[in-house]
């Protein structure tokens, strides 16, 4: 089974590009983030025509939003991250397919760090950790993938000094990522590329793409049972160089 994740930065703008990528790479499940549309406005027909009959969009007007696109039927487990019933932001989806929980996240950015946005980010990550702990307690195999908005280590950033004041690189953000890994989870990309300078995001400004001034903030973490089935993982940079691209690129993993 091939799983992939991609922050598309507006599905309305990039539906055709996503359909093209699906045709090229044929994942079984694609998790999308930052769809930037209300649930009812999601372009499901585009993906039905591409052979992906099973679609779960969770949207809100203009901002955020996640969606699951699958070739195979799945069970919807959760459409919001547990732990705060007042949180109306569309950032989480969890499905079950072939006995595997597949979690799609669009974690908060958290900037500026001196506003309420940073505590919200840290609280959201704490709730995510609690959900993953629950799945671990019940020995549920799972994959949690998406835009974490965290640069885990210096090697995941073209210039660590330039990012030190950013919420993505704050010690508290990186510690939250480590706590999830320390539950026993495996970073799929680092499983196969432990020391490579790999990025998933390049800003639209200052020639970041042309200079390869990137950061790695889109991740796939696997529970032990899922990691035992992992045979390959990687990052597909090619969509970033195409016309009208997202500032993120797809990340993928293959499980036997």
Task: Describe the structure in brief.
This protein is α+β, with helices and mostly antiparallel strands. Helices cover 26% and strands 26% of the residues. It has helices spanning 11-25, 44-49, 117-137, 171-181, 188-192, 208-211, 224-227; strands spanning 2-7, 29-33, 54-58, 66-70, 75-78, 92-97, 100-106, 142-147, 186-187, 201-202, 214-215, 218-222, 230-235, 251-255.
Describe this structure in words.
With 256 residues, this protein is α+β, with helices and mostly antiparallel strands. It has one domain: Deoxyribonuclease I, Chain A (4-Layer Sandwich). 26% of the residues lie in helices and 26% in strands. It is built from 7 helices and 14 strands. The chain has helices at 11-25, 44-49, 117-137, 171-181, 188-192, 208-211, 224-227, and strands spanning 2-7, 29-33, 54-58, 66-70, 75-78, 92-97, 100-106, 142-147, 186-187, 201-202, 214-215, 218-222, 230-235, 251-255. Strands 3-4-2-1-14-13 form a 6-stranded mixed sheet. A 6-stranded mixed sheet has the order 5-6-7-8-12-9. A hairpin with a 7-residue loop joins strand 3 and strand 4. It is globular. The model has no long low-confidence stretch (mean pLDDT 97).
The low-confidence parts are none
> Strand portion, in percent?
25-35%
The gyration radius over C-alpha positions equals 17 Å
Please write the string of helix (H) and strand (E) elements.
EHEHEEEEEHEHEHEHEEHEE
CATH topology: Deoxyribonuclease I, Chain A
- DSSP, total strands: 14
What is the overall pLDDT average?
97
> What sort of overall outline do the alpha carbons produce when their principal axes are compared?
globular
Structural class: alpha+beta
* Count of folded domains: 1
Helix % is: 25-40%
Q: Largest beta sheet, briefly?
A: 6 strands, mixed
Instruction: Supply the CATH architecture.
Output: 4-Layer Sandwich
Strand order of the largest sheet: 3-4-2-1-14-13
Distance between the termini: 6 Å
Q: In CATH, what is the class?
A: Alpha Beta
Number of helices: 7
* Relevant CATH superfamily: Endonuclease/exonuclease/phosphatase
């Amino acid at each position: 089974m091939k799983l992939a994740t991609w922050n598309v930065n507006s599905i309305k703008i990039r539906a055709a590009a996503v359909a093209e990528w699906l045709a090229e790479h044929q994942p079984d499940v694609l998790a999308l983030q930052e769809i930037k549309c209300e649930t009812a406005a999601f372009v499901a027909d585009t993906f039905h025509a591409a052979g992906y009959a099973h679609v779960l969009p969770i949207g809100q007007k203009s901002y955020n939003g996640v969606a699951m696109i699958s070739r195979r039927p799945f069970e919807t487990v959760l459409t919001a991250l547990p732990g705060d019933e007042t949180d109306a932001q569309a950032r989480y989806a969890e499905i079950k397919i072939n006995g595997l929980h597949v979690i799609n996240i669009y974690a908060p950015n958290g900037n500026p760090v001196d506003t309420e946005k940073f505590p919200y980010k840290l609280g959201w990550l704490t709730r995510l950790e609690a959900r993953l702990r629950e799945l671990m307690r019940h020995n549920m195999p799972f994959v949690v993938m998406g835009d974490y908005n965290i640069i885990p280590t210096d090697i995941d950033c073209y210039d660590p000094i330039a990012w030190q004041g950013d919420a993505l690189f704050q010690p508290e953000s990186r510690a939250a990522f480590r706590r999830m890994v320390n539950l026993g989870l495996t970073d799929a990309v680092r499983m196969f590329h432990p020391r490579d300078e790999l990025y998933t995001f390049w800003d639209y400004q200052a020639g970041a793409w042309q200079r390869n001034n990137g950061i790695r903030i889109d991740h796939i973490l696997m529970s032990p049972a899922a990691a035992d089935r992992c045979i390959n993982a990687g990052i597909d940079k090619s969509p970033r160089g195409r016309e009208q691209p997202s500032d993120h690129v797809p990340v993928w993993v293959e499980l036997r």
